[in-house]
Design brief:
Largest sheet: 9 strands, mixed
Strand content: 25-35%
Number of helices: 3
Number of strands: 9
Shape: globular
Keywords: Signal
Number of domains: 1
Radius of gyration: 20 Å
Organism: Selenomonas ruminis
Structural class: alpha+beta
CATH topology: Pathogenesis-related Protein p14a
Mean pLDDT: 84
Signal peptide: 1-21
CATH class: Alpha Beta
Distance between the termini: 54 Å
Protein name: Outer membrane protein assembly factor BamE
CATH superfamily: CAP
Low-confidence stretches: 1-26
Length: 167
């Protein structure tokens, strides 16, 4: 009888906690169309040449020890590019100031919490420092991330936006 109860308890715990894990996974990611995970015309498979054609020569351009190329426009628009089959593609972008860079929904550094909520729904995570985070992906939870957009809001304003692409 004890063995039967132990097995039933284990099955109950497995079902209960596996359901909880699924809910938690959904809490931390909001799925959006992949077209939404771009900044001002720069998206997945954009090359360094395309970025330069749109925004001109960066202030800083350097090759890191890990093979990635890092470049910066001003003090608020940064890129990492990764080599894929001999071509360098944008791998990561970060915006830290209101410099005109937006998502297709018009969200930019300086947008309000209400504007982000209207564009993407409720935030996914609240930090202990009082900031709110939107974690947006182009794929369902449990699948490898293809494109991800992270937006941080503090004091009712977007303070940082980061896009990551998988290759």
């Amino acid at each position: 009888m004890k063995k039967k109860l132990a097995v039933m308890f284990a099955l109950f715990a497995l079902l209960f906690f596996s359901g909880q894990a699924d809910v938690s996974a959904r809490k931390f990611i909001t799925v959006v169309p992949s077209s939404e995970i771009t900044f001002s015309g720069i998206g997945k498979y954009a090359t360094i040449e395309e970025v330069k054609r749109i925004y001109g020569e960066p202030e800083t351009l350097s090759r890191r020890d890990d093979g990635l190329i890092y470049f910066v426009y001003g003090n608020s628009w940064r890129f990492l590019c990764k080599p894929v089959n001999g071509q360098y593609y944008v791998y990561q972008m970060e915006v830290t100031k209101n410099n005109g860079i937006t998502t297709p929904s018009g969200i930019h550094v300086g947008s309000t919490t209400d504007e982000v909520y209207a564009a993407y729904g409720d935030y996914n995570d609240a930090s202990s420092n009082g900031s709110y985070n939107w974690n947006l992906s182009s794929v369902q939870p449990g699948q490898p991330d293809d494109r991800s957009l992270f937006i941080t809001v503090k004091d009712n304003k977007v303070v940082n936006m980061v896009i990551l692409y998988s290759y």
